[in-house]
Amino acid sequence: MSPSQTRLLFKSGAIFNVLAGLPFLLAPGPMTALMGFELNPVALMFSQIVFGMIVAFGWAYWMIARDPVRYRPFILLGLALKIMVAAVVYGHWLAGNISWQLPTLAFGDIVFALLFWEYYQRTA
User: Fold this and answer.
1) Any idea what DSSP says for residue 79?
2) Segment 27-56, tens digit of pLDDT
3) pLDDT (average), residues 86-105
4) Residues contacting 92, CB < 8 A, separation 6+
5) Are 3 and 124 in contact (CB under 8 A)?
6) Any residues with CB less than 8 A from the CB of 116 and at least 6 apart, and which?
7) Exposed, middle or buried, 72 (CB in 10 Å: 0-12/13-18/19+)?
C-alpha cells in the first residue's frame, strides 16, 4: 500500500468515526430516536461517553494517517474497539433488542476493522 493509500485509509476511518459519533454526542435525543430507541438519563450519559470515545478514536486514526509508523500501536487499539462495537451492536440486534439502523451503521466498523487488520498484517 502506498503512503497516499495509507493516508486515505486512516483519514477515511477518522472521518467515519467523527461522522458516526459526533451527532450522538451533540444531539443524542434526535439521534437515538432516529435509531429507534430511547435512553433514560443514566443510559444517555453513558452513551455520550461512548460516542465521545468514538470521536476521540477518530482523532487517533487521523494521527495514524499522518505517521503510521509512530502511531502503529493505535491500529490494534482501534481494531479492538471496532470489533467490540460490532460485536455488542450485532449481539443486541440478533437478540431483538434493537432495530436495523444501528447495525447498519456498525457495518462500517466491520469494514474498517478488516481493512485495518489487513494493513497491520502487511506492514509487520
Assistant:
1) H
2) 998 998 888 888 899 989 999 999 999 999
3) 95
4) 98, 102
5) no
6) 9, 13, 75, 78, 79, 82
7) middle
What is the pTM for the complete model shown?
Answer: 0.90
State the Rg of the chain over Cα: 15
Q: Above 90 in pLDDT, residue 83?
A: yes
Candidates 43, 41, 74; CA nearest to 57 is 74
Please identify which residue in the block is written with the cell numbers 447498519. Answer: 104
93 residue type, one letter: W
Answer for the pair 118, 9: CB distance below 8 angstroms, yes or no.
Answer: no
H/E run at residue 60 = helix 41-66
Instruction: Give the residue carrying C-alpha cell 430507541.
Output: 37
Q: What is the pLDDT of residues 98-118, one digit of tens each?
A: 999 999 999 999 999 999 999
